[in-house]
Amino acid sequence: MLKTPEAVDPAFRADVLTGLAEPIPSIPARWLYDLRGSELFDDITRLDSYYPTRTETALLKTRMPEIAALACHDCAIVEFGSGSSTKTPLLLEAMRPRAYVPIDISGDYLRESAARVDAQFPTIPVHAVEADFTKEVVLSSAVDGMPRLGFFPGSTIGNFVPRSATDLLRHFRDILGVGSKLLIGMDRVKPVERLIAAYDDPQGVTAEFNLNLLHRINRELGADIDIDAFVHQARWHDMNSRVEMHLVATRDTSFTIDGQRFVFAMGDSIHTENSHKYGSRGARMLLLAGGWTPLAEWTDEAGDFAVILGEAQRNRFAP
Ligand code: AVI
């Protein structure tokens, strides 16, 4: 059903119209996550071929005593993009923070996760913030003066190009303040076949997740995209160290959105997501560039995924 014009996020319309008119057509990855997209992403996290979620969760479980000892003493845990995280209880259980501050753009998700934490940890006060964590965030004054631990799991940092990732890390530093810590999950570079399998699973769930973006454009923006004319493709871009998701036209096709016509020749693509993979030193350099000094790093035995703890030290540019 076509959403009423008021219900459509004007930023979605603007990003789609601008992105599709670019010489390399692209749409920002955040628009993959409407209700259906979020459900499909949840399904992806349970696929055999998608190793990041289970590897990070296992890593947090096995190394939590060490992580907790270094990361949080009487702190407030601030989670960026709390979503439907299953990793949070591991931290709360081990660290018993003075407060938990989930930040999420979706009020529904936020209320759900706050209620879950409330039920499971009734003694930990929850101060939820409904906000886009890439923009201005105001934390509750209830956490003023508390040491803070930022939590940014899932390798979501990999979905930002390094320049934006650096800006985001600096922004986290501004929100949390000097002396704060950050526990961040980062996916590692590995053989291309495994990376492609993780982003192009045999069950076709990731394909459905990617193609759902076209359904969303048709539904919300009243477009007439022939979805059968596009297929999902995952590509490894070695020079930029990232997996890219594309929607590739399998034949010449055209469609109209808001009176604007877009023409795609067979083989042309819409670039819908980047997922950067870091080596150990590259990951630490990214943190340093973003204002976080790495303190410790944990990886699984195969070295598939890393969880890194950084500290926002006072600025010191010399020597
Ligand atoms: C949310 N993000 C960390 C996922 C990733 O691995 O980059 C999104 C995803 N896209 C396809 N599969 C998973």
What does it look like?
The chain has 319 residues and is an alpha/beta fold. The protein is built from nine helices and twelve strands. The protein has helices at residues 10-20, 35-44, 51-71, 88-95, 107-120, 162-176, 192-199, 205-221, 280-289, and strands spanning 76-80, 99-104, 129-130, 148-152, 181-187, 230-237, 242-249, 253-257, 260-264, 269-276, 293-299, 305-311. α2 runs antiparallel to α8 and α3 packs parallel to α4. The longest helix is centred in the N-terminal third of the chain and has 21 residues, at 51-71. The radius of gyration is 20 Å and the shape is globular. The protein starts with 9 loop residues before the first helix and ends in an 8-residue tail after the last strand. The model has no long low-confidence stretch (mean pLDDT 95). The structure holds N,N-dimethyl-L-histidine (AVI). N,N-dimethyl-L-histidine (AVI) is lined by residues 44, 52, 154-156, 158-159, 199, 206, 273, 275.
